[in-house]
Design goal:
Oligomer: heterodimer
Helix content of chain A: 25-40%
Shape of chain B: flat
CATH superfamily of chain B: MetI-like
CATH class of chain B: Mainly Alpha
Shape of chain A: globular
Number of domains of chain B: 1
Number of helices of chain B: 14
CATH architecture of chain B: Orthogonal Bundle
Largest interface: A-B, 50 and 37 residues
Radius of gyration of chain B: 26 Å
Structural class of chain B: mainly alpha
Strand content of chain B: under 5%
CATH topology of the largest domain in chain A: Rossmann fold
């Protein structure tokens, strides 16, 4: 498997001013990640964990403070400084289908805009617009319509069409279906899967919806307060979550079937600490039921527990050094979940 | 997977097809086309627009329809009342026909309403969009300078600029333009700052488009609506300021008729022919009220499409 997108220790800090004091918010802190060609990397986490900032760093809407974002071995800078071929190859689908389309431009103009920026001959532009509209399941006649004439699901199809117009290799989807109804979500997710198969696309799929991420992803990365806590193939992560945070997160998925309910509603105690002043050592320790004194002093590093299941937690680092026995199945430590009354 | 069943349900697919066909068959609705339609249905706005159209056409056709030469008076016939024989709106202190002078004067007065508004709209939008897009030091310098100008009362600033440049219609237009640039720039800056945060502008940025291209294709069309509504309300104010400058002797040069100057020169006769003295004032009033009502109508028509 070729690595298409390679994040090395990526950090993003935003300057903030608190009265006279100047500080920084660390939105993304030392994230390393590999996204393989033709696969979907799902990124989950609570709101404020830095998922969207990470998406913006990948597409170049923000500049990284430290670290590097590599694409096929080349460095991706900010959007404005990118070469034409790199900015063509990496595209993004935005969260809010309404605000992502220029209300004063027709659908056709919106989809044609990236083509015109990339100097596609005018004769080909119309043909290409009609082609991508058809790919996302909309009639070509929509090209002359304005966004307010379309439904939310249709607008999201147009957003996908615009991202696909330049024939990208990597598409970053930031909460791409969160604003849609469940039934429309299903249609859009199916469409995304079809397009991926057809064009060999690689997706970075960002969502807070654990069910949706499980459905679309090949690999899943769990983020907490700007850091990666666990990354694994989707099946392994949902079957046997290792990091205490992931275990708690998966436990919080509401079950539709009463038989599946765990009896006790288990939540995650406490609030997310402020990214202005994150906890020392492991950032999750303030809410972690398995925290020890070591967690306050040493920040756990992301380490492979075998078969591509990476976790950043002291519970695993000591007992299973990196590359000790790659064939051994990771054995999650079942932590005692705290019972929280609602 | 249960979600897939929903997507593949035949009736859902059928419904989607029908909906697609219905939308495809519908007329494309351009924003400006819809605004035009709504404005046509807006009674007050349309009435005001018709009044303005009549004023503009009558002024433009002044040489054809004016009964007398506006500059040549008959001293024997001076200070005739309104509706006196041969002079529908009476005569002034030099025996010149007031109707003819109103018609010719409308050319200058309406020009003094439109031109500064257009100049200020272009410059103000430019300054507002530039500072709204760049932010930082550039925005602070530009906008604080605008605020400084905006801090002066409008008429006082116009008088100051007009007095510095000297009398004359061109200088009046320059003075009124200077007064109007700051508020237009503020409206444009506010709209730009709102628009640049929208996701469609970010989508345009990540295609690698230049700033100029994004400003032209994504930002300007969305800022222009706000600016046009605001600027249309300025035409009436511009006319009043221009008339005030003329009244003070800083506007158009005598003997050329202009509504504000006419009001000034007739003022001495207010106890002799009060009915004639109010005529230029009534025209200034009618034109500026019509501009404001038409502007309100335009704003409301734009609202209905959203």
């Amino acid at each position: 498997m070729t690595v298409l997108l390679d994040l090395q220790d990526v950090s993003k800090e935003f300057p903030v001013r608190l009265g006279l004091r100047k500080g920084t918010v660390s939105a993304v802190d030392g994230v390393s990640m590999e996204v393989h060609q033709g696969r979907t990397m799902g990124i989950v986490g609570e709101s404020g964990c830095g998922k969207s900032t990470l998406a913006r760093l990948i597409v170049g809407l923000h500049e990284v403070t430290r670290g590097s974002v590599g694409f096929e071995g080349r460095a991706l800078g900010s959007a404005r400084k990118r070469s034409k071929s790199l900015s063509r190859a990496v595209q993004m689908v935005f969260q809010d289908p309404s605000s992502a389309l220029n209300p004063r431009a027709t659908i056709g103009e919106s989809i044609a805009f990236p083509l015109r920026v990339h100097d596609v001959p005018e004769a080909e532009v119309t043909a290409r617009v009609n082609e991508v509209l058809e790919e996302v399941g909309l009639p070509a006649a929509y090209a002359t319509h304005y966004p307010h004439q379309l439904s939310g699901g249709q607008k999201q199809r147009v957003n996908i069409a615009r991202a696909l117009a330049l024939r990208p290799e990597l598409v970053v989807l930031d909460e791409a279906v969160s604003a849609l109804d469940k039934s429309i979500q299903a249609q859009i997710l199916t469409l995304l899967a079809d397009l991926q198969r057809e064009h060999g696309l690689t997706y970075v799929f960002i969502s807070h919806d654990l069910n949706v991420v499980e459905f679309v992803s090949d690999d899943v990365t769990v983020m907490y307060l700007g850091q990666v806590v666990e990354t694994a193939p989707a099946g392994a992560l949902y079957e046997a979550p290792m990091h205490p945070y992931t275990q708690l997160l998966l436990n919080s998925i509401p079950a539709l079937d009463p038989e599946d309910r765990h009896g006790d509603d288990v939540g995650i105690a406490g609030e997310i600490p402020s990214p202005l002043n994150p906890p020392s050592g492991c950032r999750f320790r303030t809410r972690c039921p398995a925290a020890t004194s070591m967690c306050a002093t040493d920040a756990p590093r992301l380490a492979d527990t075998g078969s591509g299941h990476l976790v950043a937690c002291h519970l695993y680092a000591g007992s299973r050094p990196l590359g000790a026995d790659p064939e051994a199945a990771p054995r999650p430590v079942q932590i005692d979940l705290p019972i929280q009354s609602r | 997977m249960s979600v897939l069943d929903v997507a593949a349900a035949p009736e859902a697919v059928q419904r989607q097809k029908e909906w697609n066909a219905a939308v495809a068959a519908a007329e494309p609705q351009s924003f400006w086309k819809e605004t035009g339609k709504a404005f046509l249905r807006h009674r007050t706005g349309m009435a005001a627009a018709i009044v303005l159209l009549v004023l503009v056409l009558a002024s433009a056709a002044a040489p054809l329809i004016a009964p007398y030469d506006p500059l040549v008076g008959v001293p024997a016939d001076r200070l005739q009342h309104v509706f006196s024989s041969g002079h529908l709106l009476g005569t002034d202190e030099q025996g010149r026909d007031v109707l003819s002078r109103i018609l010719y004067g409308g050319r200058l007065s309406l020009l003094a309403g439109f031109v500064p508004t257009i100049v200020a709209t272009v410059l103000g939008t430019l300054i507002g969009v530039v500072s709204g897009m760049t932010g930082g030091v550039v925005a602070v310098l530009l906008m604080r300078f605008m605020d400084m100008l905006y801090g002066f009362p409008a008429v006082l600033l116009a008088i100051a600029v007009g007095a510095a440049l000297g009398p004359g219609l061109t200088n009046t237009i320059i003075a009124v333009s200077v007064v109007f640039v700051p508020p237009v720039a503020r409206v444009a800056e506010g709209a730009t700052r709102r628009v640049v945060l929208q996701e469609y502008v970010e989508a345009a940025r990540l295609t690698g488009a230049s700033r100029w291209r994004i400003a032209r294709s994504q930002i300007l069309p969305n800022v222009l609506g706000d600016v046009v509504v605001y600027a249309s309300g300025l035409v009436g104010v511009a006319m009043i300021i221009a008339a005030s400058l003329s009244f003070l002797g800083l506007g158009s040069l005598p003997p050329n008729p202009e509504w504000g100057y006419m009001l000034n020169s007739l003022r001495g006769a207010i106890y002799v022919v009060p009915d004639v003295v109010v005529v230029p004032g009534l025209f200034i009033f009618a034109a500026s009220v019509a501009f404001n009502l038409a502007s309100d109508g335009l704003r409301e028509s734009m609202d209905t499409t959203r």
